[in-house]
Design goal:
Length: about 80
Amino acid sequence: MEHFSYTPKGVCSRKIEFDIEDGIIRKVVFSGGCAGNTQGVASLLVGMTVDEAISRLEGIRCGFKPTSCPDQVAKALKTYQAEA
């Protein structure tokens, strides 16, 4: 199992941590952000492939912001793939 940590930009969350095993997301923990939303997103991602998560979350915006916590998850996972 690999542990990956990402510092998001442009959102309330300060850190996103992942446990990934064989391309499957096993755990996601947000530090900061809207607790209910980040817990919900984290729960939905468990068991999902990295590619599926990127496909579903990339480009989601938060109001007038150009990004969101889900979009930052996609960016984090793309960074993870690039480093793997």
